[in-house]
Amino acid sequence: MREAGGIPDPREAQAARLKAENTRLRERFAQSERTINELIDFRSQPLAQLAAQHEEIVRLREAAAGTSTVSRLPAPRTTVIGTCS
Predict the structure, then answer these.
(1) How would you label 54-75 residue by residue, b for 16+ Cβ within 10 Å and e otherwise?
(2) pLDDT value of position 21
(3) pLDDT mean by block of 10 residues, the chain; 85 residues
């Protein structure tokens, strides 16, 4: 009956099942790699922006330190007037 095609060969069925699972796992792995790469790119963009902002702050502080027209603001009042808190 097996030779006539009535009963499938269990080894062929297992090989086909394993090939299908292998293909599915390879696709899943490729998707995982794409996701990881996207997350790495997503993380590196804010870090680069923070570094650029820090450099700009340092540059502005150095520029402000060299000018005599920059003055410090007075400290905020600590006393409460009336019912304001």
Answers:
(1) eeeeeeeeeeeeeeeeeeeeee
(2) 97
(3) 64 91 97 95 88 92 72 74 64
The one-character DSSP state at 64 is H
Q: Give the pTM.
A: 0.47
Spatial CB neighbours of 79, under 8 Å, sequence gap ≥ 6: none
- Alpha-carbon distances of 50 from 10, 39, 53, rounded to whole Å: 60, 17, 5
Helix (DSSP H) and strand (DSSP E) numbers for the chain:
1, 0
Give me the phi and psi of 33, to 5 degrees please. -65, -40
Residue 40 and residue 44: Cα distance in Å, rounded?
Answer: 6
6 DSSP 8-state letter: S
